[in-house]
Amino acid sequence: MTETQGLKAEACAVVDRRGRQLIGVAARIARYPELGFKETRTARLVAESLGRLGLQVKTGLAVTGVQATLKPEGPRPTVAILSELDALVCREHPQAHGRTGVVHACGHHLQVASMLGVAMALVESGVAASLDGNVAFVATPAEEYVDIEDRLDLRCRGELEFIGGKPELIRLGEFASIDMALLVHAGGAIHSVGGGANGFIAKSVRFVGREAHAGSAPQTGVNALNAANIAIHAIHAQRETFREEDRVRIHPILTRAGDSVNIVPADVRLETYVRAARLEAITGAALKVDRSLRAGAMAVGARLEVTDLPGFLPLVNDSRLAELYRTNLVSLVGRERVVDGGHITGSTDMGDLSQVMPVLQAYSAGVAGTAHTRDFAVVDWEQACLVPAKAMAMTAIDLLAGGAAGARYILATAKPAFTQEEYVARQRGLWRYWQDGPQQP
Fold this sequence. Notes:
Structural class: alpha/beta
């Protein structure tokens, strides 16, 4: 057994010993789900868990984020092990909170347990002393890009600038001392490694009409709901114009459709993402959405107000990190239980991080159903929670043992699309409020 293999075995033994505790942490988080930038209870649990390992912990990052490092002010390179704190609304899920509908139907509670498992593995085994680099543990808020109006209120109050967790942490400089990052997301029945994901921009839309009595004088009103309906149908009419390889996805919802059935709706709100695999395709599709929104407003004479929001960038996984992680994963579960990941048309703010440094977001086995639906469920806690902890700990050892040659090679050959400063400037440039006045015949 080589020295590196011995370090890996020691780290994995800690995860096995702590397995029941880690699964208990994930289950506890699932019982108390919280939306993004509101994950106070979950963040406190993470901070306490990292603190008990003797790590210096920073809290309140981007409102609720938590960070700790193995060696404060320690040597570079630094590998980050990430997790996400937030849940989402899926009222149909059997575990959804009865009043709010919030539930961990995406598996972020599993990520937290896996991240803590890596921290325990490296600290309690003593392996940290053999690493020629540093490891940071970062629990990030608000990966789910939801609850947009509340987040815009936070922005107006100056509590944040970007309304996604990792973008805000990048802006704040919390990733300035980090060189690469690993995260494992809940996947399906089998582990997958590699691939990519769509990016998107978001639009918060308001159609402003004129209220009227819906029964006795509808002719005196301007129906903002009709404007929104026309706009949605106009968006649908664009779908045949999108190229298959760009994987465009546009999915608007009405968040306010009127106040009373006997009043012509005068204030109707819509939210949508415009997703695609490439930045250029996102921009092109967004222009077609803008035309469709204008068409709906113009058709009925409503006023249109649109806020363009920087969403997330496309995810580009680093192939070298993927190969290291895949090799370790195969050694744990066998080659037949690991597949190459393909491109997914969902989005994640790991995409933003992937544009400024080498990252890997892999997907774990052990879950059934589809994320964000009532069917999502953990069916094998070991595969979903403990195996990723072991594989990430082993990959960190590969990167940082032996003079950190593995990490240094990746950094020497990596070509991020943006520096962190360039990224922040680009995303700031995407914020835009615009409006069209009423188009009366």
